[in-house]
């Protein structure tokens, strides 16, 4: 039996979907923001606009170069699936720029997956249902049953290996440094989205 809380969460999710865009629309939005030297979110700054410009370049590269192995691709194509995927993001988020093109590539392999994008600061009530250790960390992917809108799982804000690297570094040093962030970018570039693919497969059922 569905509780009142379940009903409220489903309505929050539906509100987020009503306020969502396709991945293609999101990519067009980011490109437009780059032309305007701007960014998504409540706060618009030169630094965030610069991150947006950098992320646009990253996403362009990954959109062209992400490869899904033949065996994995076939497995995804033949899955019987009826899901809606919502990713919560902002244009300035570095992790999102590496993760989103991979998720889009996977979603495109199966017609039973509808991949939607929402902006965190425009959907704070939705974000607050899916915090990471009490934080509004992005990118956050929510996997839903397409019909019932029941939450089947969540993913993010980083791939599993990247999460372990960040947690280990924080445990040793008390926080992340610019040098470590640079190392993390190197990891993403070397991994080429393969950890995201491996992480998502079990969540797809």
CATH architecture: 3-Layer(aba) Sandwich
The count of β-strands is: 4
Strand order across the largest sheet: 2-1-3-4
Count of discrete domains: 1
CATH class: Alpha Beta
Poorly predicted residue ranges: none
Order of helices and strands: HHHHEHEHEEHHH
The mean pLDDT is: 96
Distance between the termini: 23 Å
Structural class: alpha+beta
Q: What spatial form do the alpha-carbon principal axes imply? A: globular
Tell me the name of the CATH homologous superfamily. Glutaredoxin
The proportion of residues in beta strands is: 5-15%
Helix fraction, binned, reads: 40-55%
Question: What is the CATH T-level topology?
Answer: Glutaredoxin
Rg over CA atoms = 17 Å
Please give a structural write-up.
With 205 residues, the protein is of the alpha+beta class. The chain has one domain (4-204): Glutaredoxin. Helix content is 53%, strand content 12%. It contains 9 helices and 4 strands; from the N terminus they run H-H-H-H-E-H-E-H-E-E-H-H-H. A 4-stranded mixed sheet has the order 2-1-3-4, with helices on one face. A hairpin with a 5-residue loop joins strand 3 (140-145) and strand 4 (151-155). The radius of gyration is 17 Å and the shape is globular. It starts with a helix and ends in a 5-residue tail after the last helix. The model has no long low-confidence stretch (mean pLDDT 96). This is Thioredoxin. InterPro entries: Thioredoxin-like_sf (IPR036249).
